[in-house]
From TrEMBL:
One of its GO terms (molecular function) is phosphorelay sensor kinase activity. This is histidine kinase. Residues 87-139 form the HAMP domain. The chain crosses the membrane at residues 12-34, 66-86. It catalyses: ATP + protein L-histidine = ADP + protein N-phospho-L-histidine. Signal peptide: none annotated. It is a multi-pass membrane protein. It comes from Paenibacillus anaericanus. GO terms for cellular component: plasma membrane. The keyword Cell cycle does not apply. Pfam families: HAMP, HATPase_c, HisKA.
Length: 364
């Protein structure tokens, strides 16, 4: 029973299947070539009667014996050599199988060493990249859940505490208390809305986005109009320099990006001017929004596009409005979907957010 089961397992191995197929092909080729040579030699012997009948019969039997022996020896040697190379070629596939099993069981395998540049080597590279992406996604998910729960815990606790005290008559409501509760409620609302927006853009594919021809200078000017009251209230002026150009992009995506960047510049502005400039090159339109702000350490500048990142308290909104730490993460996600980029640069206490918008969408 055991040998039969072992043989059945071996039949399932790709290496054994390849070896068996190649051995059969080689056997057929060697046998056909040998038979052809034998028949040709026998024809020559009979035609020219080089030997007698008895010797002719002996010659044919001898030729057949050597043909069989040579064929079997050639097949055995070729099979051994072939098996050695097939086993070496399929070794990465066995590692891929084991790593896939680990992924299915919920653990992340170590990267597989790439020893070739062929199709198997390319498959191994892609598998390593996929594993790393899955691992990062899992880490981001855990961090996101932790940050969401942390960011919601405080305002919800405040709301529950005050509402419970009000309902029990422990405290009486006044304008200041209700404004504080409203602020906590608005913070939660902003957080949930931005989480929803981030989720929508993460799941949105390029094929599902609508691309239109947009006069980018007019589009930016219209987007700024919704901030006029806030700008007047904070006594902030805009220094605008935009190159006129038509691009093909997503209006919804660009409107969300502009809204988040302009709101960020207004919220964390320590001066009275915001600079907005737009220039075009051969393939992109580069829009830069600059403002004066509190000092931000260089090591933190690389983190501003991470989800839930919030700088120290000294850089919080001058009006005391709590940020969600998601606005710039949404900008980064949208720009990636549009095929562009976003970056932050600084010169002393002047901070500039720049986005590069492709003139035409890349839907490949």
């Amino acid at each position: 029973m055991l040998p039969t089961k072992k043989l059945q397992i071996r039949k399932n191995y790709v290496a054994w299947k390849l070896v068996a197929v190649n051995a059969l092909v080689m056997l057929i080729v060697i046998w056909l070539a040998g038979v052809s040579v034998k028949d040709f030699a026998c024809v020559l012997v009979e035609k020219y009667q080089l030997v007698g009948d008895a010797k002719t019969d002996f010659f044919q039997r001898t030729m057949q014996f050597y043909l069989i022996r040579a064929s079997l020896l050639a097949v055995v040697v070729a099979t051994l050599i072939h098996f050695f190379f097939i086993k070496k070629i399929l070794s990465p596939l066995k590692k891929l199988t084991e790593s896939t099993r680990q992924l299915i069981e919920g653990s992340y395998p170590e990267p597989i060493e790439v020893n070739s540049e062929d199709e198997i080597g390319e498959l191994t590279k892609r598998f390593n990249a996929m594993t790393l992406t899955l691992q990062r996604s899992e880490q981001n998910r855990k961090v996101m859940l932790s940050n969401v729960s942390h960011d919601l815990r405080t305002p919800l606790s405040n709301l529950n505490g005050y509402l419970e005290a009000l309902s029990n008559g422990v405290i009486e409501g006044d304008r200041e208390l209700y404004l504080s509760l409203l602020e906590e409620s608005q913070h939660i609302t902003r957080l949930v809305e931005q989480l929803h927006q981030l989720s929508l853009w993460e799941d949105k594919g390029t094929d599902s986005m609508i691309f239109n021809r947009i006069p980018i200078d007019e589009f930016i000017t219209r987007s700024l109009q919704s901030f006029q009251l806030e700008l007047q209230h904070k006594e902030i002026t805009l220094d605008i320099s935009l190159e006129a150009l038509d691009i093909i992009s997503s209006e919804d995506g660009l409107r969300q990006v502009l809204t988040n960047l302009i709101q960020n510049a207004i919220t964390y502005n320590s001066g009275h001017v915001i600079w907005i400039s737009g220039v075009a090159d051969r393939d992109d339109y580069r829009l830069t929004i600059s403002n004066l702000g509190e000092s931000l350490p260089e090591e933190q500048q690389d983190l501003v596009f991470e989800r839930f990142f919030q700088a120290d308290v000294s850089r919080q909104s001058r009006d005391g409005i709590k940020g969600s730490g998601l606005g710039l993460a949404i900008v980064k996600e949208i720009m990636a979907k549009l095929g562009g980029q976003v970056e932050l640069s600084s010169d002393m206490n002047k901070y500039s957010f720049s986005i590069t918008i492709p003139l035409k969408p890349n839907k490949t």
